[in-house]
Amino acid sequence: MRIRSVCILGGTGFIGRQIANRLANQPIHIKVLTRHRERNRHLLPIPNLELVEADIHNAEALTRELAGMDAVINLVAILNEGKKPGRRFEDVHVHLVERLITACREAGVKRLLHMSSLGASVDGPSRYQQTKGEGERIALAAHGDDFAVTTFQPSVVFGPADSFLNTFAGMLRLAPVLPLPTPDARFQPVYVDDVAAAFEASLSNRTLFGRTLELGGPSTYRLIELVRYVAGLLELKRAIIPLPDGLSRLQGRVMQHLPGQPYTYDNYLSTRVDNVCTDNALPQLGIHPTALEAVAPGYLGGKTTRYRYDEWRRDAGRHG
Question: Which residues belong to any copy of the NAD-dependent epimerase/dehydratase domain (predicted)?
Fold first, then answer.
């Protein structure tokens, strides 16, 4: 299958920008749909990229924008839901997928790469996992001879603009004491560029049609280990207090009512399932998983850590 044009939903986000930058190195026309074109003009310097203002929740608009596209990449997801239409888990993770598949068929699109998440399951404990699982089920059910689907299940994704390590960094900078819910929850953080490379490598690879690919880094960590690591990079001495299960559950129920929903009961439920691969697809794709410790110091480290990291880069002959 030869891919000459790709439409990315969620292309203005953390992972989407990385995928767009990778695809820009190929002779591929990239269309990124966004509700707010002016807010995302920083994407325009990416070669071969067209930034189009469109409402992806409008079936007619979606079909119109997919016309002439060879492939679609769907990255749209929310971690916490709101009450307004279009901001609920079902709206984003399920109904949008249904609408997207219909639009692909009407527009003649032949290839779909769909972002799910590790732990996604219709039987999962959280609404996030259940709706992500249902969306993935719908996407894979649409796979056939005339419409090739591949889904991806990454663990938490890290990188300079991530909302995982950076969130904890922000908390640690503000609070001398950090009560930590579900401290023993396990994760296998995967580097954003490795995720983008997996999407790039899968685009035309027929052996991956109809498959689900788990994506993870080279190591697993407990949540408390990750938070302590971030505190060390920031050179902050903080009291990180691991909360037992009952208090973790209570914290979710209380904090979900705070502005910005820093932590919710549904987040708590998601951590009841280890976010760890059973079969990491990155090595199968020829991608060597990048270690967290090789990247995080460069964007989280304090002054001393940054200096040491720059020294390491110079010694490795990669400074410049």
Answer: 6-205
pLDDT tens string 35-85: 999 999 999 999 999 999 999 999 999 999 999 999 999 999 999 988 777
Provide the pairing of β-strand 186-187 with 148-154. Answer: unpaired
Domains and CATH numbers, the chain: 5-156+191-215 (3.40.50.720)
What mean pLDDT comes out for the span 121-129? 97
Residues with Cβ within 8 Å of 320's Cβ and at least 6 positions away in sequence, in order, are none
Beta bridge partners of 239: 177
Cα within 13 Å of Cα(48), Cβ side: 17
Tokens of 277: 């691969």
Q: Are 97 and 238 in contact (CB under 8 A)?
A: no
Q: Which of 159, 148, 155, 145 shows the shortest CA–CA distance to 202?
A: 148
CB half-sphere exposure, 68, CA atoms < 13 A:
6
Give the Cα-Cα-Cα angle 220, 305, 238 (nearest 5 degrees).
70
- 45-53 contacts at long range (C-beta below 8 A, 24 or more positions apart): 46/20, 46/21, 48/23, 48/24, 49/20, 49/24
Residue range 243-271, pLDDT digits in tens: 999 999 999 999 999 888 889 999 999 99
Instruction: Pick 74 or 303 by higher pLDDT.
Output: 74
Record the pTM: 0.92
Q: Which residue has the higher pLDDT, 175 or 219?
A: 219
d(CA 135, CA 77): 10
Distances (CA, A) of 206 to 34, 145, 200: 29, 11, 13
Gap between the Cα atoms of 119 and 224, Å rounded = 20
Look over the chain and give the mean of its residue pLDDT values, rounded to a whole number.
Answer: 93
- Longest Cα–Cα distance in the chain: 57
Runs of H (alpha helix) within the chain: 14-23, 59-66, 89, 96-107, 127-141, 165-174, 192-202, 223-233, 245-255, 265-270, 292-300, 303-315
